[in-house]
Structure formats: structure tokens, C-alpha cells
Design brief:
Radius of gyration: 23 Å
Number of strands: 11
Distance between the termini: 16 Å
Strand content: 15-25%
CATH class of the largest domain: Mainly Beta
Shape: globular
Mean pLDDT: 75
Helix content: 25-40%
Oligomer: single chain
CATH topology of the largest domain: Coagulation Factor XIII, Chain A, domain 1
Low-confidence stretches: 63-115
Number of helices: 7
Structural class: alpha+beta
Number of domains: 3
Protein name: ActD-like protein
Length: 256
């Protein structure tokens, strides 16, 4: 797997471009990007291409489900029971064994929706963009990007893992450009990876750590995955690292 970054432009960092495309910049910062694009045909063409990619990604992964997860929970309908008349309250006594059960199920569902880290692989093959899902086999030369979704956010790390046990830091480490911090929601990470023709299977491991003082360091995260890579099976099933949550995405690839 060959890590390849989005083309760099003098004075305009990659992350600034991503935030510009996501409408996350202040007016002053956005003006800085637009002025740079006016004097750089390469940057202007790059922004047009990225907008087209984002439009394709939006068709694959609409934001609606994420918005529903981030929305505050609706008021429980059971509160209306207290305003019912006495005869209905008498009937409600017979339902006391049912109502707590329904409320408990609602709470379980709310916890399930709020928890968990999701990582998706978005593939560009020629002019076609699609999500890598079950049964999809990738080819050498495919370019992939990682989309991460989480309702809490935190410090983000991305690592590549080969079936031979090789661990390669990709994002969030000092040697890869520094720390990455993700806000709650969904984020298509800057940069892309190009699959090579190496005769081995590979996987991406995404780790999200809380921003608290006791969150593990990048070095601890890498050692944790290196230890898990000693397992005979691929991909490994590492035990959760305290203070983090993780997701493993295998990149099934055509082999010679």
C-alpha cells in the first residue's frame, strides 16, 4: 500500500482545503483559500475535482442517518400518563409490568445508537467512486479514502496492517504529519492510499482515543497493534485498548 497525499499547494495545507470543502472555515480563512485558487490553476482544478468526489461520496453515504443519531432524543410519550384521569390511571396500574419494559428497550436502543466507531472505505477506480463493501475485491492502482463516523470524536489514528504482521502508521502520528482530532459526526479523512501489487492482503485499523489526559499515546497505540499482529489469523481480533475504540477494515485485493 502506497500512502499518497492530496497534492500540496504552497501556503494552503491539505487540512485547510478539507475544512474549506466542508464549509468549516471562517470567512477570512475561506477567502485565503479562494485567493490562492484564483492565482493557481492547479489548485482551482483540484478543488473542482474534490467537489465532484464529495458529491459522489454524498450519494454513497447520505448524512441523514448521522443527523438523526446526533439529534437529541424525543420526549418520552409515557410522561403523558401523569395527566390522565383517575379511571385511566387505574388501568395504568395493570400496565406497570409493561411500561418499564418498553422504556428499558428505548434506553437500550439509545445507548446502542450513541456508541461505536464506524470506518468505511471509499474507492476511486478511474472515474468511478464507490464504497468497498462485502464481496468487493480491490485492484492494484485503486485509490482509497477512509470515512470515519463517531458521535463522540477524539484523537484519531489510522494504521495499515499486512497479513505478514507489518504495521505502518498512516495518520495521527508525528511521523505522518502530527495529531488528528475528530469532532463528533462524520469525516472523510484527508489524503488517500493507492493499493500496490504486493502479493499480500492488507487491512486498515482506525483507533479513536478520548481527549482526556489518560488517553494512550501514539506509541502505545502502535505497540498495541504490533502485539495483535502476532496472532496467526488475519485480520487479528485485538482486545480493546483501554481508553479507545477501534475498527478494522480488510482490503481484499486481487492477488497474482
Amino acid at each position: 500500500m502506497n500512502p499518497t497525499s492530496i497534492p500540496r499547494f504552497p501556503g494552503v495545507p491539505d487540512l485547510l482545503l478539507e475544512r474549506y470543502l466542508c464549509d468549516e472555515l471562517s470567512a477570512e480563512e475561506a477567502l485565503r483559500v479562494e485567493e490562492a485558487a484564483r492565482v493557481s490553476p492547479e489548485l482551482s482544478a483540484h478543488l473542482r475535482e474534490r467537489r465532484a468526489e464529495k458529491a459522489a461520496f454524498a450519494l454513497v453515504r447520505p448524512f441523514g442517518p448521522v443527523r438523526e443519531r446526533l439529534a437529541p432524543p424525543r420526549q418520552s410519550r409515557w410522561r403523558g400518563l401523569w395527566r390522565w384521569s383517575l379511571p385511566v390511571l387505574v388501568l395504568g396500574v395493570g400496565l406497570t409490568a409493561v411500561v418499564p419494559r418498553l422504556i428499558a428497550l428505548e434506553e437500550v436502543e439509545r445507548v446502542r445508537v450513541r456508541g461505536g466507531l464506524t470506518a468505511r472505505v471509499l474507492v476511486k477506480r478511474g472515474d468511478v467512486v464507490f464504497e468497498q463493501g462485502p464481496g468487493v475485491v480491490l485492484r492494484p492502482g485503486d485509490r482509497v479514502r477512509v470515512e470515519v463516523e463517531d458521535v463522540a470524536g477524539g484523537a484519531l489514528y489510522v494504521l495499515a496492517l499486512s497479513e505478514r504482521g507489518r504495521v505502518t502508521p498512516l495518520q495521527g502520528f508525528e511521523i505522518t504529519g502530527g495529531a488528528l482530532s475528530m469532532a463528533p459526526g462524520r469525516w472523510v479523512l484527508p489524503g488517500s492510499l493507492e493499493l500496490d501489487a504486493a502479493p499480500e492482503q492488507e487491512a486498515l485499523v482506525v483507533v479513536l482515543a478520548s481527549d482526556s489526559q489518560d488517553a494512550p499515546s501514539p506509541e502505545v497505540v502502535q505497540r498495541w497493534l504490533e502485539h495483535a499482529a502476532r496472532e496467526p489469523d488475519f485480520p487479528p481480533s485485538p482486545m480493546p485498548l483501554p481508553g479507545t475504540r477501534h475498527a478494522v477494515r480488510v482490503l481484499p485485493k486481487e492477488l497474482p
